[in-house]
Amino acid sequence: MSLRATQRPIILGLRQNAAQFFLLVAVNALVGGMLGQERTVLPLLAESEFGQQAYTAALTYILAFGVAKAATNYFAGTWSDRHGRKPVLVAGWLIAVPVPLLLIWAPTWGWVVAANVLLGISQGLTWSTTVIMKIDLVGPARRGFAMGLNEAAGYVAVAVTALATGYLAEAYGLRPAPFLLGIAYAALGLGLSTLLVRETRGHARLEAANHVARADGRHDHLHQELSNRQVFTQTSFREPALSSASQAGLVNNLIDGLAWGLFPVLFAAAGLSVGRIGILAALYPVVWGFGQLFTGALSDRWGRKWLIATGMWVQALGLALIALADAFTWWAVAAVLLGAGTAMVYPTLLASIGDVAHPAWRARSVGIYRLWRDGGFAVGALLAGVVADAFGIRAAVWTVAALTAASGLVVAVRMYETHQRRTSAPSAPQGGANG
Fold it and tell me: Membrane spanning segments where (predicted)?
């Protein structure tokens, strides 16, 4: 029996698919919460309970997470095209279930690293799939807004959970209380994904069948049928917008790996309490998260390129302030700058990938972009750890600030504007794509 015969009529558009879209927003909030359970507590656990003194050794869990998530992102896109989106999403939640239990019971640091390998695989499958499914549902007109909502849900949940685990750790200790939230998130995410989420691959097929080429002919060489190798090459190196987005995504998560692994240690060394460290750990992703509610939609009006370039430069400024400051108030200002810059970049990069990649291979391109982007966690953990061990944490922050400013320059020079306003494009074949 055909897909159309077994499902409701397939229509593109945010309004037409609102129930499924906002269900996926909620699911991605739970995905973010699984990541947030670690943000405040694990850097402190590394030293206090597991004796990880060297920064490079302590950051092994972020390195393991980044490598696992980056590799899984690639396969998530391929598997989503081959087997459908929903099975990949459910598999990701199944893999997430043991993570908080391993963190609670871990007798050695190796257990923590193993838990983060599972967390990386889970995040690669679940977060990638919710991104792909939302792009499928909304069609071309509201892509930036859709990505803003998706990433906002995920990173507000990271922030709220980081804040909550900081207070739980201060009140009840570093284990097990903070990780009980993770158990609840995994159970709820698995239940919603299994019982209520519907497959969206048919929406991508509908868009592919009615795909409208750019008026300037820029994408004429990007045919509907590309091999996996061709998609990888175009996304990573050859296509100017896709490759610019990939390098910017890598540097962006390099910043996040630094913030996750070393900022709590820097703040603790300055004498801040666990509760105040939790506030700072939450402030960056909460501004990032809520900011995306606006920046994603703005990219649909203003375009993608200059939001991305400016966002990278704002993040570089925030990092410089982190390195210069030595007090809670200035670190809070820096965290706001970091969050604002990341909000300008994060959903806009995903939207630009959706603009350029043909619907027939878009899921694979999203997976490859996210491979590079989340590879930034691993690069950030390794680079920050090595530089911090050799020259101190502040030197590591300065190094990443310089790389971030350079990444913004690459976008400004190499990337073209990917967003084409579709006021003149035929609307009928899209089945309401402008809704």
Answer: 21-37, 57-76, 88-105, 111-132, 152-173, 179-197, 250-271, 277-294, 306-324, 330-350, 371-391, 397-416
Separation between Cα atoms, residue 34 and residue 159, nearest integer Å? 11
- Which pair of structure tokens corresponds to residue 184? 């609840």
Q: What CATH number is attached to the domain comprising 415?
A: 1.20.1250.20
Q: Residue 95: CB partners within 8 Å, gap ≥ 6? A: 118, 121, 122, 125
Domain assignment present for 182: yes
pLDDT confidence tier of residue 421, bands split at 50, 70 and 90: low
Higher-confidence residue: 409 or 47?
A: 409
pLDDT tens digits, 136-158: 898 777 778 888 888 888 888 98
Give the pLDDT band of residue 419 (cuts 50, 70, 90). confident
- Give the integer Cα–Cα distance in Å for 158 and 36: 4
Residue ranges making up the domain that contains 47 = 17-203+227-420
- Please indicate, yes or no, if residue 83 is contained in any of the structural domains: yes
The DSSP-derived string for 198-263 is: ---HHHHHHHHHT----TT-TTTTS-S---HHHHHHIIIIISHHHHHHHHHHHHHHHHHHHHHHHH
Q: Which of 246, 253, 251, 218 is nearest to 232 (CA)?
A: 246
Work out how many domains the chain is built from and give that number.
1
Tell me 165's DSSP state: H
| pTM score of the predicted model | 0.76
Q: Are 124 and 268 in contact (CB under 8 A)?
A: no
13 phi/psi in degrees, rounded to 5: 135, 145
Q: Is 25 helix (H, G, I), strand (E, B) or coil?
A: helix
Residue 333 and residue 421: Cα distance in Å, rounded?
Answer: 36
Q: Residue 407 is encoded by which pair of tokens? A: 């990444």
Tell whether 299 is covered by a domain. Answer: yes
DSSP 8-class letter at 196: T
CA-atom Rg of the chain in angstroms: 21
Residue 344 backbone dihedrals phi, psi, to 5 degrees: -70, -30
Of the candidates 406, 395, 307, 399, the residue with the CA atom closest to the CA atom of residue 350: 307
| Within a domain: 265 | yes
Q: Are 257 and 404 in contact (CB under 8 A)?
A: no
